[in-house]
Amino acid sequence: MLARTSGRCLRLVAGRPALRRRFLHATAISLQSAFSVDDCSPIDLLAAERLQMAQSVLQTTTNDDDLGVVSDVLLRLSMARDVARAKTLVELMHENDVLATAPAMRVFSRSYFREHAKDLPSALQWYLENHKALLSPTQELPLQDVLVHLVAQGQAAAAIEFWLLWSETLLELPIDAIAALLAELVRYEQYETVIGMLATKHKESLQQLPAFHMAHLEALVGLRKYSAGRSLLHELRATNAVPYSARLKELAALCRQRPATQSK
Predict the structure, then answer these.
(1) To the nearest 10°, the Cα dihedral for 48, 50, 55, 57?
(2) How many helices (H) and strands (E) does the chain have?
(3) How far is residue 15 from each of residues 60, 62, 63, 195, 220, measured CA to CA in Å?
(4) Partner of 83 for a Cys bridge, out of 91, 115, 146, 234, CB 3.0 to 4.6 A?
(5) Domain boundary among 138, 167, 194
(6) Distance CA 260, CA 9 (A)
(7) Whole-number Cα distances in Å, 51 to 14, 167, 219, 224, 245
(8) To the nearest 10°, the Cα dihedral for 18, 24, 28, 34?
(9) How far is it, in rounded angstroms, from Cα 23 to Cα 17?
(10) Are 133 and 99 in contact (CB under 8 A)?
(11) Measured between alpha carbons, how far apart are the two ends of the chain, in Å?
(12) Domain that holds residue 192
């Protein structure tokens, strides 16, 4: 009974633009106050009705206020990790040339790539094909956000694969995103992954980044490869590749250790 009543109410709201706008905006406000972008809520029982309402908006109006709240539905579906319905909505937004807001894009990207971490090439292809629904001309693809999220979810290998795939679409190395990726890899002690980045075709570019040198040194110390760490320190000091910092001093002191058994 409640479900049927809810359905009738939603159809009534969907048929009246003013009510529809008020309902969707109120939903967005309540969601923003109740959830953070990292929260995971269960799939809403009204998710299908929300998607249906967004479809109705896309089909019946060109009003910017109405179209803007479609992103609120995308945000809600993405926060609930209802990726299937969120993808459907993104495709509809793409077909109708409707852009997503930055918060909706960010949360959808996290949920989408987390869901498809085992098939990133196909996932990235779909994402780029539908990028018109995700971006305005002034927005950037949320590479950094996705990389950090994947590492935090224990998917460091997927993060590296994603970085390599995405780099194929870029003219320049995304320095800020790489720095954030390295910081997360060190934070979660993914030291072998850091060192493994030297085996990619971006080795020379990485060696131009102070952030990579510091992460490399952190990895060597973390793996107790102190001899290799001392060699790297010698190179970095000779070329002045990294600025002095308290952490660099701490790592240098750690590299001077000579344990009885040392990894090579």
Answers:
(1) 160
(2) 16, 0
(3) 10, 15, 15, 58, 63
(4) 115
(5) 138
(6) 74
(7) 11, 33, 46, 53, 52
(8) 110
(9) 10
(10) yes
(11) 69
(12) 142-264
pLDDT for the residue 34: 35
Burial class (CB in 10 A: 0-12, 13-18, 19+), 77: buried
Clarify whether residues 250 and 124 are in a common domain.
no
65 and 160, same domain (yes or no): no
What length is written for the chain? 264
- For the chain, the domain total comes to 2
In the chain, at which residue ranges do the beta strands (DSSP E only) sit?
A: none
pLDDT in tens, the chain (264 residues): 433 433 444 444 445 555 444 444 444 443 343 334 444 444 454 788 889 989 999 988 878 777 778 999 999 999 999 999 999 999 999 898 888 888 898 899 999 999 998 888 888 889 888 876 777 666 667 889 889 989 998 999 999 998 998 888 777 888 999 999 999 999 999 999 999 999 999 999 999 999 999 999 999 999 999 999 999 999 999 999 999 999 999 999 999 986 655 544
Kindly state whether residues 104 and 170 are assigned to the same domain.
no
Tokens coding 66 = 């109405």
Q: Residue 167 is encoded by which pair of tokens? A: 């780099």
Q: Helices 47-60 and 2-14 sit at what angle, rounded to 10 degrees?
A: 20
CB-based contacts of 227, cutoff 8 Å, min separation 6? 262, 264
Last residue of a domain, one of 109, 138, 167: 138
